[in-house]
Amino acid sequence: MTFFGLAAVNDLQPGEKAERALSRWKDLLFSVFAFPFVVVLFWTIFAYDRELVYPASIDAFFPPWINHAMHTLVLPVLLGEVLVQPHTYPQMSHALAALAAVGVAYLSIVWVYLTVGVWVYPLLGHFSTAGLLGFFFFNMAVVTLLYLLGDRLNSQIW
């Protein structure tokens, strides 16, 4: 959502200097945060055991179309973006720093558990402390691989 808002502002913003700065931020957001990690991880776990990430009891509050809007629709939109708009991918060190910052921020879901006693994703309740660390490191590796895939795909198309 942030990426597409920034892209719209970039298109409306007058001035070459401001446009370049917004374009760099837009490219960073797209390349590091928008590429389809959520789609891949969510649907992989959902296919294995739905109850681990999106329990059936949630359907009473969030109908299936909302689930698909959050976890499926983003993929064709992002692939469309790759096909119609070239992006300048940031240096690997900058991308990894941004990914690490988001990964650390995402660990706030552990704070939710410690505060409320409920895991945001039921899957996390099945892990030991070492298992949680391994799961988070695995996710960071997948995100990094998706960044590299996006960079390669962007290079091949543009």
Automatic annotation (TrEMBL):
Topology of the protein relative to the lipid bilayer: Multi-pass membrane protein
Cellular-component GO terms for this entry: endomembrane system; membrane
Entries under InterPro entries matching the protein: ADTRP_AIG1
Substrates-to-products reaction catalysed: 9-(9Z-hexadecenoyloxy)-octadecanoate + H2O = (9Z)-hexadecenoate + 9-hydroxy-octadecanoate + H(+); 13-(9Z-hexadecenoyloxy)-octadecanoate + H2O = 13-hydroxy-octadecanoate + (9Z)-hexadecenoate + H(+); 12-hexadecanoyloxy-octadecanoate + H2O = 12-hydroxyoctadecanoate + hexadecanoate + H(+); 13-(9Z-octadecenoyloxy)-octadecanoate + H2O = 13-hydroxy-octadecanoate + (9Z)-octadecenoate + H(+)
Pfam families reported in the protein's UniProt record: Far-17a_AIG1
Keywords: Membrane, Transmembrane, Transmembrane helix
Domain of life where this protein originates: Eukaryota
Subcellular location: Endomembrane system
Membrane-spanning parts: 28-48, 68-84, 96-121, 127-149
PANTHER family with a match to the protein in the record: ANDROGEN-DEPENDENT TFPI-REGULATING PROTEIN-LIKE (PTHR10989:SF19), ANDROGEN-INDUCED PROTEIN 1-RELATED (PTHR10989)
Family membership noted in the UniProt record: Belongs to the AIG1 family.
Protein known as: Androgen-dependent TFPI-regulating protein
Species name: Poecilia reticulata
